[in-house]
Amino acid sequence: MNLDKINHIAILRLSALGDVCHAMFVVSAIKKRYPNASITWITSPLEAHIVRHLPAVTVCVYDKKAGIKGMIALRRALSHVTFDVLLHMQWSLRASALSRMIKAKKRIGFALSHSREKQSWFVNELAPEPRGPHVLDALFSLAEAIDVTELPESCDIILEPLTVALPDQFVVINPSASKQERNWTLEGYRSLIHFFAERNIPVVLTGSPASTEVEFANTLLEDPSIESHAVTNLVGKTSISKMLSIIHASKLVIAPDTGPAHIATLVGTPVIGLYAHSNPKRTGPYKDLSKVVSVYDDLAEKEYSKSVAELPWAARVHDAHAMSYIQLEQVLEKVTASLSEHVL
Fold it and tell me: I need a labelling partner for 76 at 20 to 30 A (CA). Which of 145, 149, 228, 328 fits?
C-alpha cells in the first residue's frame, strides 16, 4: 500500500480509561502525519466521553453489554466505508471479534511479543517491536507501521470551560482507583492533606461516581483535624469532561494507578503516581516516570523470587496490602521537589 494514499483510518481501542489516554497521544501523532485523513475511533461508552475531546475524530461507541447485536449494529453503521488501515489497539478476544465487523484493507496488530488472546489471527500485518516497555510504546508501534515516527510533546485536545469555582492555584489528589487494592492508605492521604494545608495550598479531590470511590473520599474527610475549607471534594460530582478541565487547571496531581493519573499527562499537568501492583515503567504516567513513587520492584522480586528484568512484561504483584508499603516520606520527597520545580 502507498502510505501517502491513506485516507481513512480506523482506531479500535475500547478501554480502559488510562490506556485510551495513551492512545490519544498516538492518534494525535497520526493526525500530524496524515492531516487530510479521516479518523474513526471505535471505543466504549465511558471512554467515548474523553475521546470526543480530540478534534476531527469521529467516535463510534460499542457497548460490550450489547454483545453480538451491538457488533452487528456497528457493522451496519460503518458499512459505507472500507478503511485503508485499521489499527487494532486492544488486547482482547471481544475486540478482535468486533474488528471483523469493520471493513479494512490493512489490519495491523501488535508484534507477537505483545500480542494476547490470539490477536494475531485477526490481523494481516504485525507492528514492529515497541521502542520501550511502556503501554504507550506498544500502542505507538502500531502507528510506526504506517510511518508515524514521533509522538507529539502535547496532545491536541479541546477542553470545556471550567464551571466549578476553584482556587487560583491548587493541587488535585485523586485518592481512589477502580480497584480498591490500588488505593494508598487513608493515613497517608490525610498526612498529605495536612502537608498542603500547612503551606496554604488548597486541595481538590477528584474521582468517579463509583460508590467505593465516594465512600473512600468521605471517610478520608471524616478526620476532624482536616480543615474543610482547605479541601474541595468533587469525587463523583463531575463528568469526565469536567475532570479533564479541573486537572488541566491544577498545578500538580497525586494519584494511584488509575485513569486520572493519565488524564494529567494528557493535559500537561505534572503527576506523582503511586505504584505497587504494576510496573510503573509499563503503566506509569508516561511523561512523569521520574516522579513515580513505587514499591513494585521490591514486592515483585519477593513474590516471584526473580529480578524484575526476568519477569513477563505484564507481571503483577498480588499482595492485597501492597500499597501500604509506600511511605509518606517517599511521597513528600516527590511532592516537595515538584512544588519547587513548579513554584507553587
Answer: 145
**152 half-sphere exposure, CB direction, 13 A CA radius:** 20
Question: For residues 102 and 113, what is the distance between their CA atoms, to the nearest angstrom?
Answer: 25
Q: Residue for cell digits 507529539?
A: 152
- Going by C-alpha positions, the residue among 4, 64, 52, 2 that lies closest to residue 27 is 52
Rounded Cα–Cα distance for residues 344 and 334 (Å): 14
Instruction: Give the pLDDT band (50/70/90) at residue 74.
Output: very high
Of 151, 156, 147, 100, the C-alpha closest to 128 is 147
DSSP letter for 271, please: E
The rounded distance, in Å, linking the Cα atoms of 41 and 339 is 37
Find residue 95's DSSP bridge partners: none
The cell numbers describing 138, all together, are 506498544
Domains of the chain in start order, with CATH, are: 3-144 (3.40.50.2000), 171-342 (3.40.50.2000)
3-class secondary structure, 85: strand
